[in-house]
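Aim 2, interim progress: modelling of the FE2/S2 (inorganic) cluster-bound target.
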Amino acid sequence: MKAEEVKVTFQPSGRSVFVLPGTLLLEAAGRAGVVLQTPCGGRGTCGKCKVRIVAGSCVAAPAAERILPAEQVQAGYRLACQTYVEQERLVIDIPAESRFEAADQILTGHADRGMTLRPVITKRFFRLAAPTKLDAGSDAARLRAAVGAVEIPFALLRRLPGFLRSHDWQGTAVLAGNRLLGLEAGDTSAQAYGVAVDLGTTTVVGTLFSLATGEEKAVSSMMNPQVGFGDDVISRISRVRENDGALAELQQTAVKAINALIRRLGESAGVHARDMYEIVIAGNSTMQQLFCGLDPSALGEMPFVQVFDGALTLQAATLGLAVNPGAEVFVFPQIGGFVGGDTVAGMLAARLDHAGRPALLIDIGTNGEIVLAHDGRFQATSTAAGPAFEGARIVQGMRATAGAIEKVVLRDEVLLNVIGNTRPVGICGTALIDAVAELLRKGIIDETGRILSAADVPPGVPDPLLARLTEADGQTNFVLARAGESASGEPIYLWQKDVRELQLATGAIRAGVNILLRRVGLAPGDLGSVLLAGAFGNFIRRSNARRIGLLPQISGDRIHFIGNAASLGAKLALLSADERECADRLRRKTEHVDLSLDPEFQMEFGMAMMFPSEELDDLAREERVGARP
Ligand code: FES
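Predicted structure of the complex, ligand included:
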């Protein structure tokens, strides 16, 4: 009988996800975009991933009974890293201290810096005394006495006398730092909102916040409609290089997408666009430049050069954003080449400046960005991993949408998870990593990446797995789903060339990591933490990523998921001027390492394409559950 997916809802965000019975709560939370604290790496020893079952039930793991007080276990508290979804629909409450975003910092052992709400945009209600014969100071001086020594742009100075006299000398001043942005009738000081935007190549995520309280009001995401101009940044840059007018077109497309998000956010939170005063943008260098209307052509040839490095502050109205006409846009600082504002935002969110031990931040995507923090300095690089992780160039690959095999476990038979609990259509990046890691463990794939024929496979491999090895054109492929099991009625294979594509993608990231480590004389074992950022990084099984060499060979308790770090960094910059200053400091302390200019890269890359011969076994449990035959 086919297992049915179970709905799991996470409070207080209300985000829901459907997963199969047997899935770890921690994994279900990750799929719902809810990131939990996991300082012990999911070993069940720190208790930081504690959650409470509000509706439904799950058996308490022995680790929870050891760590949590009996009355908490009784009250429904469980460790998300040790608890499995059962047959029943669940509502789970995530206490503030278990939420990743509530953490003062991510790197263990470096507490002391939380975020203080100090947005750049503030509102002040004022009530002025009308001029008298004894007090005939200017209107501007009168306003400054009430709201501080603000700079008043000429356009507002022209409005000021009429505004004060027609509103009985009271109103609300909208300020950007010490600059007056606008004057509003009445007391509107509670109505100040801003939007943090993670402007990705494929997806745009917007989060609406109250600037008065720091509260998250709504989140929305959509596909970046620029994909119509090409899936990756290189094709969009080429478009600009080859077509007059393409830059304006791409810019308008980005602006329209953000306007659509703003509309949706406003509708779902009941907030009027005229009360939105600031937009913060964090994107890769190509996305940020296209959004600003800055020509990214120089990123299309060596040496890869950006137009700007320090943060930009622009007028929302000039860009065509449908928010308050006085609103501003903060665009994140950039590091160099393809290392852009999303990486700086990720560094900010990961609190890399607080790393006591060497720390590595990796955002795995078509373009892998890697930052190494060591001794208060940072090195950052990007590496062209190609689209294998997104399922492209994989023979039966697809994005992680309904019908995609997203998880593969090998026991005596093949167990699969398919998104949407339907018959499989193809495989996505996480399943590709799983399949190769599992076949390496069984000895069916060797270190060079070759899928062995049934005759060459070492003894001990179960017959049902051997029966899945098929030969075609002198190569061996592995049947993941048989013809009768797939949506199309055709088998779904892991093809030999898929393994080669994965080796290229993995090798590029690993070579980047190795070169950064070597430049400062470190070995992988010296790393205190590896932080995985980005949508893809959140869904991979750490043990499998480590098995194929995508992650360094360090113990699992040092490998942490940090969620959508670019979004979180954008949020920090929206809510705190101090965080913006920190972002700028991080940028200035970061050296951009251009791998294309590194003489060792090609050799390093060639070596990194070999799979590691062994693995640490501390995370084995993580990926061997939650899949079905
Ligand atoms: S106890 Fe669950 S992550 Fe540490």
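Residues 121-184 form a domain with the Ubiquitin-like (UB roll) fold (CATH 3.10.20.880). The CA atoms of residues 128 and 145 lie 9 Å apart.
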